[in-house]
Structures are given as structure tokens and as C-alpha cells.
Write a structure and sequence with these properties.
single chain, 356 residues, mainly beta, four-stranded antiparallel β-sheet
């Protein structure tokens, strides 16, 4: 016990923000997991994209039960080196964390406290890695060379690839099939569909021009893109047909609900206006009223860079960026009630994953 007290005293200089909730579960301990700092069991990790060629992508840790933030780059603190650039995607599976660094062409595997377990360089023949999904012990990564690449989640070793289309972006798995958007930077308008078991060839479904995001909500698949005139259309992909439902530049989901924002910028004044609304995937009903309550006024005109829900309780986190300074996180309860705002401690926060 005396040793522990001395150790925590020596490490306290690393903690910029005080007040973290200690873990009450004797079966889990951050220090035993290899952490250099004490961490709550209710922990969340923000992937900060950083700036292109800046080698300043990073991960911010906060306690999602209290919103207390460790105000330094967690990856740097745990691993004594920079993560890379740019931070493109982050997922968690079976207690491990997987991060995609697009410009650095890396897949990085971390344990549940952010200590690196493995990293893999993505072959230049595949192109820059973009987004990742896990299924049955394998990672499926979209790569800008026109492929979905398959890796073993255990050690990140490369397995094989499937050709899908130009500049594939977001990817999901649903009912044994992989779905990824082919943006083509405006030259493609298809979603590629690949059977996970055979992982050999892709079929295609046309959607909007320059598709980007894809998400599954309550068994329904929705696609969002830039569109031919950058008006951010989105709609449902069902029975081989795409049906447009609205306009949105970002989204997140919990249960049956899809939460959306449509950001419109007047480039003559560089003024952005955000419209928040929701869609019930189960009933197919659109609610044009904002799902947010008592939101800070600046959120109406800030650049929304990411939206994430906590799968533990449905709380909503909206991330903003000015692409130069550290971004901000706006935390709302699942019913839309504003909780708090805190800094992401990194440039352009993109996505949050949650563990407990």
C-alpha cells in the first residue's frame, strides 16, 4: 500500500486534470494493465485527427461517468512516442482498440488503457487506409487504392484483399456482408457489397455521387455523401434500391434513432449554420425539430467534425473543429439535455470509443 501511494504521488505530475473516479472493481486496475496513469474503469478515448503531415494525431482519455479529462495526449504518455498522422478511424473490440492512421499508412492495436500491442504498415500498393470494421477476429480496412484489405485482429498480419472501387471510405458489416462507400472523390456513386465468408468479389449498388458515410440502424442501412453539388444527401439502401431521405453532413445513432446535423456554409461570409434533427429507423419517421436542449449558442455555427453516441447509455457527443486549434466536445444526455463542454486536447476530434 505504501508503495502504491508513493507511485501515485510520483505520477501525479502527469495528471493535469484532477478528480478522476477510481475503479471500484478489484478485478480491473489500470496500473496492472500497463498504464502509466490511474484511469477510471468508465473510460472513453477521443481520436484527434491532427493536421496533415503534422505527425500530431493523438488520443485523449476522459472518464465518461464524470467527464473528467486527462489533458495530455494519452498515446504519447503511455507509449513515449507520437501516434502518427492523420487519425482516421478508431474502434474497440474485445477490450482492444484499433486505430487507423491514413497518411502514415498504419494500423495500430492498443490494449484497453492505450498501451500499444502491435502496429502494421499498410502496403503502398493498397493505398492509404481509411476506415475499419471487425468481424470474427479479422479487421476489414478500406484502402484508397480501391480495396478492402483483410488483417488478423490478433497480430495485424495481412491476409488478402478485394477490389471494390475508387477511393473507398466508410465500411460496415451487416448480416455477413461488408458494405463500403466508393467516393471516387466525386467520380464514383456506388456502394460495394462483399460477402464476408467468401471475401472474393464485390457487387455494387448505385447511390448518390461521391458517397461517404454508411451506417446500420435497427437493421436498416443508410448512406450519406457529398452529392454532385455538395448538398450532403442521405438515404436508405434497401432491396437493391437507394431512396433519398434528406440532407445531412454528419450523424450518429443509438437504438432505433439516427441523429443528424446538416451544416450549410455561406462561403461569401464563411458563416456556418447547423440544423439538428432526428430520424426513427423503426417507424421511418422524420423529426425536423432539434434533438438538443439548452445547447450552447456557439454550437449553432461551429464546424461539426464528428458525432458519437455512448453505447452504454445513449448519450450524445458532438465534436467541433476549426482545423487549427484544439477542438471541443459537447456532451448531451440521450434525451438531448446539455451536460457539459470540454476541450478535446487535440486538433479536429473525429470519433470517440467507450469502455467500462
Amino acid at each position: 500500500m505504501k508503495f502504491r501511494k508513493l507511485m501515485l504521488g510520483a505520477l501525479s505530475a502527469l495528471m493535469i486534470t484532477a478528480g478522476f473516479t477510481a475503479c471500484d472493481d478489484d478485478d480491473w486496475d489500470a496500473i496492472k494493465e500497463g498504464s502509466a496513469i490511474e484511469m477510471a474503469q468508465t473510460r472513453a478515448f477521443i481520436l484527434n485527427e491532427g493536421s496533415y503531415n503534422g505527425n500530431n494525431a493523438g488520443i485523449t482519455y476522459f472518464d465518461w461517468a464524470t467527464d473528467n479529462v486527462y489533458s495530455s495526449d494519452l498515446y504519447l504518455a503511455q507509449n513515449k512516442r507520437q501516434l502518427g498522422d492523420v487519425g482516421q478511424d478508431i474502434i474497440t473490440e474485445d477490450g482492444d482498440i484499433y486505430v487507423i492512421l491514413s497518411n502514415s499508412k498504419l494500423i495500430v492495436k492498443l490494449n484497453s488503457v492505450g498501451v500499444e500491442k502491435a502496429r502494421m504498415s499498410v502496403s503502398s500498393d493498397l493505398g492509404d487506409p481509411r476506415y475499419v470494421v471487425e468481424k470474427d477476429g479479422y479487421l476489414y480496412v478500406t484502402c484508397y487504392g480501391g480495396f478492402i484489405a483483410k488483417y488478423k485482429a490478433s497480430d495485424l498480419s495481412y491476409v488478402s484483399k478485394v477490389t471494390v472501387g475508387q477511393n473507398p471510405e466508410y465500411i460496415i458489416e451487416e448480416d455477413g456482408k461488408l458494405y463500403c462507400t466508393n467516393s471516387g472523390w466525386g467520380a464514383d456513386n456506388r456502394v460495394a457489397i462483399v460477402d464476408v465468408k467468401s471475401f472474393s468479389t464485390a457487387s455494387f449498388q448505385e447511390v448518390m455521387s461521391n458517397p461517404d458515410r454508411i451506417i446500420e440502424v435497427a437493421g436498416h442501412i443508410y448512406v450519406q455523401g457529398y452529392g454532385a453539388i455538395y448538398d450532403y444527401p442521405w438515404g436508405e439502401l434497401k432491396n437493391g434500391k437507394y431512396t433519398e431521405l434528406g440532407n445531412a453532413s454528419n450523424w450518429c445513432a443509438y437504438g432505433d434513432m439516427l441523429y443528424l446535423v446538416n451544416s450549410v456554409t455561406d462561403w461569401s461570409t464563411y458563416t456556418t449554420t447547423n440544423t439538428f434533427y432526428s430520424y426513427n429507423a423503426k417507424t421511418g419517421s422524420l423529426n425536423n425539430s432539434s434533438f438538443l436542449k439548452n445547447a450552447p449558442s456557439e454550437l449553432a455555427t461551429s464546424s461539426v467534425y464528428g458525432m458519437t453516441t455512448n453505447p452504454k447509455n445513449g448519450d450524445i457527443y458532438i465534436m467541433t473543429s476549426d482545423y487549427v486549434n484544439n477542438g471541443n466536445i459537447y456532451h448531451f444526455k440521450n434525451d438531448g439535455t446539455f451536460v457539459t463542454k470540454f476541450a478535446s486536447t487535440g486538433i479536429s476530434p473525429r470519433k470517440i470509443v467507450f469502455l467500462n
